[in-house]
Structures are given as structure tokens and as C-alpha cells.
Amino acid sequence: MNFDKELNTSGMACPLPIIKTKKALSDMSTGQVLKVVATDVGSIKDMPAFAEQSGHTLLSTEQSPGLYVFYMKRK
């Protein structure tokens, strides 16, 4: 998937991946896509909840053992 910016939150525990994602999205323009790489298993539930609460669109989620990748479109 094409993306405009990548954020690596590997090794960070909740709530840091969400806080960093929120900050990264605030620095982007409407319609741009942020790729977030995380290792925190909690991000599987946190990212969709954050997208719903904030109005951003979670386009895709990819999982492999110990690694989670999210693509989020800024509202």
C-alpha cells in the first residue's frame, strides 16, 4: 500500500504508539496515509479504537509474529 509517512513505534508500550500516531497524523494533510509499525500486542485493539474516536480511517492492518502494521488515512 502506498503511504506518505512511516512511524516506527517498535519497542514502545501502550499508550506511546497511540500518542505518537496522534502526533504524526496532526502533522500531515487531509487524505495522507500514515504507516505505523508496532510491536505492542495492545495496538491490535488500540489502533481501531483510536481511528473510530478520532475520525481517521484505518485502511489496513497486517500482522506477523510480534509485528503489527497499520495504515491510517488522516481525516
Explain this structure to me?
- The chain has 75 residues and is of the alpha+beta class.
- It has one domain: 2-Layer Sandwich (Translation Initiation Factor IF3).
- Helices cover 31% and strands 33% of the residues.
- It is built from two helices and four strands, in the order βαβαββ.
- The protein has helices at 16-26, 43-54, and strands at residues 5-8, 33-38, 57-64, 67-73.
- Strands 1-2-4-3 form a four-stranded mixed beta sheet, with helices on one face.
- Strand 1 (5-8), helix 1 and strand 2 form a beta-alpha-beta unit.
- The longest helix has 12 residues, at 43-54.
- It starts with a strand and ends with a strand.
- The relative contact order is 0.27.
Layout of helices and strands, plus pairs?
Layout: E1 5-8, H1 16-26, E2 33-38, H2 43-54, E3 57-64, E4 67-73
Parallel strand pairs: 1-2
Antiparallel strand pairs: 2-4, 3-4
